[in-house]
Request: fold
Amino acid sequence: MASVKNTSFGNPPLLEKVGAVASIILYLPLFLGWTLINSPFHRTNKHKTWTRIIGDRLSYFLTTRFNMKQLQWALGDTLEVYKNYMEGQKLPLVTDELAENSRLLWIGERRTDRVILYFHGGAFLFPVPFFVLSFWKFVQSELEAKGKKTGFALLQYSLVPTATFPTQLKQAVLAVQHLISMGVEPQNI
Reply:
């Protein structure tokens, strides 16, 4: 049985939501504008593209000004990110419901010959970042171009505060067991 609590994932009080939106609308453009003006003068930015510089500073801005619930509210959950990505790419949603309130989310078709099982980072607090799905779709396409068709499955695990550790570890074990029960050889995961 999962150690799942009835708590509010990503549901900050109204005042914190207003503060987050105001910070993004009023302060973020100034922050990023100053970053662009200032970036050529920092040696750490010498070999970075402007999109990388903006991405780094945006991450810094969000993680230093928002609390956990505000970030969760702004980022959504992994299933929401997955659905938005798949709909944007006009790909079918392919999911496997697992026990313990978790799912495998597939990019492309389910495969049993070779599978990348991806556990996203985020300290059990945050969903998969949207750009990660694009990266793994690219990797999958590159492997296919080399004649190595590979399935890609992302584990949607429970996030804090709705579940505590070791729930996520149990969900990871369930994902591996599920793939093996589908016929995937352990050495091909």
Observations:
- Confidence is low (pLDDT under 50) at residues 1-6.
- The longest helix spans residues 14-38.
